Amino acid sequence: MSNYKNIIPFLFQKLLSDKTRTTTEKIILNIALLSFFIHLLIIYLLKFNVIEFSSDTELLNNPISAIYTPFSFILIYEVYLLIYYLPKSFTTYITKQYEIITLIIIRKLFKDLSSLELSSNWFEIKGDLQFTYDLIASLLLFLFIYLFQKQGKKKVKQQLNLKPDIEKFVKKKRLIAVILVPLFLFMALDTLFKWSNGMSITTNEFPSLESINNLFFDQFFTVLILVDVVLLLISFFYTDQFHKIIRNSGFIISTILIRMSFGVNGLTNTILILVAVLFGLAILSIHNKYEKNSFI
Questions:
Q1: Residue 273 falls within a domain, yes or no?
Q2: pLDDT beyond 70 at 124
Q3: How far, in Å, CA of 227 to CA of 147, rounded?
Q4: What percentage of the chain has pLDDT greater than the value 90?
Q5: ∠160-162-163 over CA atoms, to 5°?
Q6: What residues make up the domain containing 201?
Q7: Which residues lie closer than 8 Å to 177 by C-beta, 6 or more apart?
């Protein structure tokens, strides 16, 4: 039994310590930088007919689209940071969810920049119109995340004196975090295998860009929904305060809305993401009003 109690702190220290986070950051950023130059090199080798690959994918037609690849690795690091902050701060953990979906939109913007059709009929071209939606959405999400973080800091200031039971809750969150690291690593590798398996050198077929998101991030947010539900159920052991239950339930709804956005395209996709983050911001703001009144 004592070995079981020691193994979780040991794994947590190895996988999610500050030292591991710093090392992981350096490795992923170096890989991201290297992948950018490799992608850029492939584009120019194709452009000057040094190699032949007659795919019409946007990723291989314009140097700007090479930014898509390093952003994919940055997203992987953001996934790691989400797990890293799970035991430390619940609001920061939720913030990371919002940052990930925002970075997905930013990554898509870089890809779409390479295929814009600059003309007087801007709002009649489907691709250009979607680019406009995503551009506006990225600005609004940036603002919503700032306001969400601001509300989160208010909550932290109000909880200077934590109950002893909170430490038990933190230990359970560390256990969940330790489980999530290998789980998401397996999901990422499985995604990479399935996506690369869809490539065909002989027929010059290149899997769609959307398949990357559909193979990983829809599953990723599905797992996050389950994690949020588990955290909600565990929290019942430590609090019966109505506003905290509503806050945690609201965050689950927010995550579900983000997950639903992967099943639709166009303006509906953008609206679902904006509503999800705005709903989370509203829930946290109202929760903090309850917290403030409880100290009166």
A1: yes
A2: no
A3: 24
A4: 45
A5: 155
A6: 15-293
A7: 12, 15, 16, 83, 84, 86, 87
- 3-class DSSP state of 296: coil
Structure tokens belonging to residue 141: 């999400």
A 10 A CB-CB count for 181 gives 19
d(CA 261, CA 248): 20
Q: Is 228 exposed, middle or buried (0-12, 13-18, 19+ CB in 10 A)?
A: buried
| HEC sequence for 197-240 | HCCECCCCECCCCHHHHHHHHHHHHHHHHHHHHHHHHHHCCCCC
The dihedral sign for the CA sequence 208, 210, 212, 215:
negative
Residue 241, domain member (yes or no): yes
pLDDT beyond 90 at 140:
yes
User: Based on the structure, what is the number of domains in the chain?
Assistant: 1
- Cβ-based burial of 29 (10 A; exposed 0-12, middle 13-18, buried ≥19): middle
C-alpha radius of gyration, the chain, whole number: 21
- Report the distance separating Cα 94 and Cα 258, nearest Å: 12
Amino acid sitting at position 191: T
pTM: 0.86
**C-beta of residue 97 within 8 angstroms of C-beta of residue 75:** no
Determine, yes or no, domain membership for 132.
yes
pLDDT (average), residues 213-218: 72
Average pLDDT on 9-36 reads: 93
**Helix, strand, coil shares, percent, the chain, to 5:** 80, 0, 20
Exposure class string for 80-116: b at 16+ Cβ within 10 A, else e: bbbbbbbbeebbbbbbbbbbbbbbbbbbbbbbbebee
Mean pLDDT of 129-150: 93
Does 4 map to a domain? no
